[in-house]
Amino acid sequence: MQLQKKVLSNLITGIVVATITSTAAAATDGKIKIGVLADMGGTYADLCGPGCVIATRMAIEDFGGKALGKDIELVSADSQLKPDIASSVARKWVENEDVDVIGGLVSSAVTGAVTQVTNNSKNITLITGSASNAFTTSACSPYIAHWTYNVVALANGTVKQMVNEGKNKWFFITADYAFGHALEGVSMKVIEANGGETVGTVRAPLGTTDFSSYVLQAQASGANVVALANAGNDTVNALNAAAEFGLTDYMDIAGLLVFTPNAQAMDPDTAQGMRLTTGFYWDMDDQTRAWSKRFEALHGAIPSMAHAGAYSATMHYLKAVDAVGTDDSDAVMKQMKLTKPDDFFARNATLRADGRMEHDMLLVEIKKAADRKNKNDIYNIVEVIPGNKAYNPMLPSCAF
Amino acid sequence: MRSRLAILVLLGLALAAPLVIYPVFLAKVLCFALFACAFNLLLGFAGLLSFGHAVFLGTGGYITGWLMINSGLTPEIAIIAGTVAGGLLGAVFGKLAVKREGIYFAMVTLALAQLVFFLYLQAPFTGGEDGLQGVPRGKAFGLIDLADNQTMYYFVLAIFLAGFWLIHRTVHSPFGQIMKAIRENESRATSLGYDVNQYKWIAFIISAALSALAGSTKTLVFELASLTDVHWHMSGEVILMTLVGGVGTIIGPLVGAGVVVSMQNYLSGGELGNYLHIIMGAVFVVCVLSFRSGIVGQFNKFRRNNF
């Protein structure tokens, strides 16, 4: 028995020494594996959930399905909009399953947690669903490409225009996490810079279903605009509550972030005339219509800007991989920033050194029910906002 | 002798495991195992069902995470601080909760835990929905860099073993005997002259502190502390782990945590991801209906009857 113990303890020591001295394998394996992390069944599922997986798969198929001579692999997972779950999935992907790049990413809280992991592991993230401008400012990294839109573009589009039209007293109903805080902060600055004022704010948890108490606070605030600094079903629920309390009769409601599925879900009578900023509208021209038809056939609904962005970002990434002939993140990112993204989604676009993808944004207006030809016909394009006017200027500290 | 050998073999397996299995996953299992063991100390040995244990897990996590981000403390000090904070919170909650029994005890713990949940949701230092992101792992004792996953795993293993040993000691001490006596027949324990509430209170504090230890360690592993750890779902999950593994057995919670965490891990990525909660619910029902003593409890029975 004594001998047995000795053998065992020697064995254990040996194993420990062996494990500690062994090192992790290198990340570049010449095979491209793309992970899409999105909200598969929650508040934001319609914006960037299964649709973002479909859009990414379309990009892979359109690219030919192969990169660096090997089949491109696609994996996906549900973030459940929880930072801890997203973070552990991302960690598992990049550390244990050789995922090269992570896309999708809706909800800024989730994206913040994921980029903490991917920045450390030097994997590229293609952010297509989140809005916070932190990813190219306070939390910028050489491995982030922020596609589609951000809070600055939303505020510079919708808020500025409304303040200039004389809507000068604002009340905010804000989603209580990174995205809502960022959008509220940026919008307030725009309001102030253009001579308006913010008379009050209230913060509602993500996934709130009953907005009546918030709407009543808005009603009592004396504002002439109620800004909804939230997204997805939250926006729809807040707007419905505002309509039920008759707010829409004498106050303007500004949906600061509205995706097409949400605009479709809104009652046209209450939402008509509402102006909003978007990175993409399916019915803009022949190019957008052609892609959107293909997407609709697969997904069953017209694409949101996050879907179109997921396609565009994936395609740009794959082209860069092809051009440099490696999956090394530094080389690929350098190439992505050298070439200008150009497709049905990215117009007059450039991927800046800080990772911000700057492209033309659209200021649109929700159509009246009478003017709609079919259920997908929801916006009139009011104005095209050039990318350099829409987005925040680059910080010197983030120019990678 | 045989059990000694079994322990050595298990230890060897635990040391060799990261060679084969992803270390972060193993570390997660160990953190939850410690949490479940701490919970089991209360449910299995003192017969107290707390339905708010997540609050201790989360508190440990937040305190450790905040200290790691905002102070230059080394991880072991931050973990001790988190554990002490959980213990103090446990002292307050325990004092209030042990005044009641049965379902009322569970409800008091749940209510207090929900109170703290909303506090953490609104308090600026927790980061609300975003959680505390980017918690550095730091260098243990100022020497061992925990950034490497395998090193981190061994650090967690050491903490787990320490916690596990403490629970083992507690259960097999005179104090543990009295806990069991209280579980079996509280009135008799009182009539024998024991201050029952005092014993329950101390058991509660030990359990809370060890739960906080698990939370603190988990925060370091994932470099993140979030509301998930404080949510009442987590309080439910730990009950599931303990029940599946075997209430009132020493290694039951360890097995239960392994089973539940593995299920979550493998199901969440696959086609069945959307049905995760349904499957977990089904497992719970099957467990309660057909093998109430859990995997380890059932195994022990089988061994007793056949060998």
TrEMBL record, chain A:
Keywords: Signal. CDD domains: PBP1_SBP-like (cd06327). Coiled coil: none annotated. InterPro entries: BCAA_transport, Leu-bd, Peripla_BP_I. Pfam families: Peripla_BP_6. Residues 31-369 form the Leucine-binding protein domain. Residues 1-26 form the signal peptide. Belongs to the leucine-binding protein family. This is Branched-chain amino acid transport system substrate-binding protein. The lineage of its organism: Bacteria, Pseudomonadati, Pseudomonadota, Gammaproteobacteria, Oceanospirillales.
UniProtKB/TrEMBL annotation, chain B:
It comes from the Bacteria. Its main location: membrane. Keywords: Cell membrane, Membrane, Transmembrane, Transmembrane helix. The chain crosses the membrane at residues 32-56, 77-97, 103-121, 151-168, 201-226, 238-263, 275-295. One of its GO terms (molecular function) is branched-chain amino acid transmembrane transporter activity. GO terms for cellular component: plasma membrane. It is found in: Cell inner membrane. It is a multi-pass membrane protein. PANTHER family: ABC TRANSPORTER ATP-BINDING PROTEIN (PTHR30482:SF17), HIGH-AFFINITY BRANCHED-CHAIN AMINO ACID TRANSPORT SYSTEM PERMEASE (PTHR30482). This is Amino acid/amide ABC transporter membrane protein 2, HAAT family (TC 3.A.1.4.-). It comes from Marinomonas polaris DSM 16579.
